[in-house]
Amino acid sequence: MRESTAGRRRAVRLPAVVWLTLVWVLLWDRPTVANLLSGLVLAVLLQLAFPLPPVGPQLRLRPFGLAVFALRAAADLLHSAGPLAWQAAGGRGRCARNSVIAVPLRTRSDSILTIMAIALSATPGTLVLDVRHSDATLFLHVLGAGDDAAVAKARRDVQALERRTVRAFGTRDDLRALAGDGT
Amino acid sequence: MTAVLGAVAAVLFLAAVCTLVRIVRGPSMLDRAMALDVLLAVIMAGLGVSAVAEGDTWVMPTLLALSLLAFVGSVAVARFLVPHAARPDEPDQGADA
Amino acid sequence: MRTAFTAALLLLGAGASLSAGLGVLRLPDLFTRMHAATKSQAVGLLLVLAGVGVRFPTVEVLTSLALVALLQLITVPVAAHLVGRAAYRTGRVDRGLLHTDELERALEAPDED
């Protein structure tokens, strides 16, 4: 724990200020000037009082990619309820076999990995079990992947999600990592 | 509208009963933690429905508090209640949470 | 019209919640049950919240609902991942239900770096 506290610097970061102020205003139910100002003051004070270690390369929001990513995630979330309901109603005996698969990612950014993990839990039939940071590999439990073709399809789906995520949030380096690998 | 609200309440009640049976049955603590999460979500949905039924929104702060605290239970169980399987070669190398 | 919309959203949300409950009760192992729990639970709650938002379209309620939905979307994956990870590592995997298991190989193979 020692070395991680040593890396913490007292710094006020603008994205964090915006985010904390937004939550504060939402908590107070109505956007008034007083709420906005008190939120800004609190956000700055909080960051000075509780410094966090830097999270590495920051995200870069890309409006077009972000729209594609958000629409697809919402569609996936709504879609994921259907087949599961079918399986739940179908009972024990009809449950297909599943797989635990490893998906190597092409980008190494922790931020991208985090966003992907959240998006994956909205995608039908995937559950993040583990992450290996050393080579950015995700381990997923895939529902209903009972043969090699289904496993390959699941892996392609995750890599497509990675492409969408990087196009929505990636820095220039992430985009280069994505392009460098062909596919 | 009253009939619809009654039906919605009945369906939510059924869902809550299902999760309660799973909580009682287990078999592991993790099953219970997960079922408890679902039960809390069902309770939150029920609070929302009650707001519509009463035409009053006093439940909003309750919903907020529940949404902040709901996941703490299963995180605590996953972290502390389950004996950590000691493996020399864990797949994650970083200092994770 | 708005009442009908609210009613539809509440009914759909309750249906999704019920499918979460049924899934948690009836699916055969912890991991499949978690699939049902995390997805249907989030969908059900979000639909019900949307119904409440349609019924009370005021700034106060909508901001609270937005925050509840946001927190739900952020926290559910965290809890699901931690439970799934703990479950796998304590050996609660039913091998009979698995086609391949690439994590087991990764845990057994020595890690180079």
UniProtKB/TrEMBL annotation, chain A:
Transmembrane helix as UniProt keyword: yes
InterPro entries: Cation_antiport_E
Topology term for the membrane: Multi-pass membrane protein
Subcellular localization: Cell membrane
Keywords on record: Cell membrane, Membrane, Transmembrane, Transmembrane helix
Chief location category: membrane
Segments traversing the membrane: 34-52
Keyword Hydrolase assigned: no
Domain of life: Bacteria
Entry's family note: Belongs to the CPA3 antiporters (TC 2.A.63) subunit E family.
Protein name: Na+/H+ antiporter subunit E
Protein species of origin: Actinomadura fibrosa
Automatic annotation (TrEMBL), chain B:
TM helices/strands, residue ranges: 6-24, 36-53, 59-82
UniProt keywords, alphabetically: Cell membrane, Membrane, Transmembrane, Transmembrane helix, Transport
Location of the protein in the cell: Cell membrane
Principal location class: membrane
Family annotation (InterPro entries): MrpF/PhaF-like
Membrane-topology descriptor: Multi-pass membrane protein
Top-level lineage group: Bacteria
Keyword match Aminoacyl-tRNA synthetase: no
Family affiliation: Belongs to the CPA3 antiporters (TC 2.A.63) subunit F family.
Protein name: Monovalent cation/H+ antiporter complex subunit F
UniProtKB/TrEMBL annotation, chain C:
Domain of life, per lineage: Bacteria
NCBIfam families xref list: CPA3_mnhG_phaG, PRK12674.1-2
Name of the protein described by the UniProt record: Monovalent cation/H(+) antiporter subunit G
Transmembrane stretches, start-end: 61-83
The keyword Nucleus is annotated on this UniProt entry: no
Gene designation: mnhG
Record family assignment: Belongs to the CPA3 antiporters (TC 2.A.63) subunit G family.
Keywords recorded for this protein, A-Z: Membrane, Transmembrane, Transmembrane helix
Organism the protein comes from: Actinomadura fibrosa
